[in-house]
Amino acid sequence: MPELPEVETVMRGLRARMEGQRIVRAVVNRPDMRWPFPKGLVERLTGATVLGFRRRAKYILMRLSGGDSVLIHLGMSGRMILTPGAPNAVPAHEHLVLEMDNGWRVGFVDPRRFGSVDLVPTAREDAHKLLTGMGPEPLDDAFSVAMLSEALKGKRTPVKAALLDQRIVAGLGNIYVCEALFRARISPSRLAYSVPGARAARLVPAIKATLTEAIKAGGSSLRDYVQPDGELGYFQHAWKVYGREGEPCEVCPEHRGCEGVRRIVQSGRSTFYCAKVQK
Ligand SMILES: [Zn+2]
Q1: Dist CA 5 CA 25 (whole Å)
Q2: Angle at Cα 103 formed by Cα 97 and Cα 104, nearest 5°?
Q3: Residue 117: is it exposed, middle or buried by C-beta count within 10 angstroms (0-12/13-18/19+)?
Q4: Using an 8 Å Cβ cutoff, are 249 and 264 in contact?
Q5: Which of 28, 72, 157, 165 lies at a CB distance of 3.0 to 4.6 Å from 161, suitable for a disulfide?
Q6: Does 269 participate in catalysis according to the annotation?
Q7: Beta-carbon contacts of residue 135 (< 8 Å; ≥ 6 apart)
Q8: Are 44 and 93 spatial neighbours (Cβ–Cβ below 8 Å)?
């Protein structure tokens, strides 16, 4: 499932090929993905110029001349395939195709169809029902130690669950929360109300650094954010704790008696952490 850094990398890849270009042809191959495509989508896309892009949480907003923004979510398995001209073979499960006047072709492929596409007036992007009520972007200055401390005050839920709450901070997913908590040396089971102060002062920079490093790795490992097969944005990660059950974590050798990375289940999701270094 694409998380914030992957979505950011996909967005940058789209920007590199689409910004300033006109959409000469738009095709939808079925009536819906997770939800029905909005009425008039093809007409609104065709002939519009792509003015720019914005990411909000795990959503991509593509701003068009004419005042519409296209709100795109990649869901569980959504991928953007970019090809210079027609592909050798049209990918299976390609639901939306955009052909640009610079010759590039963009296909939205999503076998499981948890992805979605909607239209929203650019002037009212944040009022869209999927975006309204979201907390600050984790990489914005608005996401600060003071802000997080205030949001966690008095909360008797585990800090991991609080960080996954999109009203507290937008766009953090399971993997990056595990990684950031490891980096901050905070136990995922610690109750949120005990985090404000010194722990929040470690946690906020840990979240920002974890995401920034992943975005940087994504950009530098791909040419124009595009893989050789035209797929945008996904890249290999080296997780420090995620998926590493039983392995020593990178700081373990300094800590005697470490049992390695543990996996527990919180709110139905796997959490990976080192009980020795995360308190
Ligand atoms: Zn360890």
Answers
A1: 29
A2: 50
A3: buried
A4: no
A5: 157
A6: yes
A7: 143, 151, 165, 166, 167, 168, 169, 170
A8: no
Task: Spot the catalytic one: 58, 63, 155, 276.
Answer: 58
Q: What is the pTM assigned to this prediction?
A: 0.93
Q: What's the CA-to-centroid distance between 160 and ligand 1, angstroms?
A: 18
CA distance linking residue 40 with residue 152, whole number of Å = 43
Cα–Cα distance for residue pair 130/27, rounded to 1 Å: 24
pLDDT mean over 20-48: 97
At 149-166, the pLDDT tens digits run 999 999 999 999 999 999
Catalytic status, residue 158: no
Residue 2 is among the residues annotated as catalytic for this protein: yes
- The residue type of 192 is A
Dump pLDDT digits (tens) for 80-113: 999 998 888 888 999 999 999 999 999 999 999 9
3 C-alpha to ligand 1 centroid (Å):
25
Q: Are residues 168 and 260 in contact, defined by beta-carbon separation less than 8 angstroms?
A: no
Active-site annotation holds for 155: no
- Terminal CA-CA length for the chain: 28
Query: Which is catalytic among the residues 3, 99, 179, 231?
Result: 3
SS3 30: coil
| 228 CB-near residues (< 8 Å, 6+ apart) | none
CA 211 remoteness from chain centre: 10
Asked if 206 contacts 180 with a C-beta cutoff of 8 angstroms, the reply is yes
* Cα gap 186→189, rounded to integer Å: 9
Q: From ligand 1's centre to the CA of 197, what distance in Å?
A: 24
The angle formed by the CA atoms of residues 36, 38 and 40, to the nearest 5 degrees, is 135
b/e burial code for range 60-94 (CB count within 10 A of at least 16 → b): bbbbbeeebbbbbbbbeebbbbbbeeebeeebebb
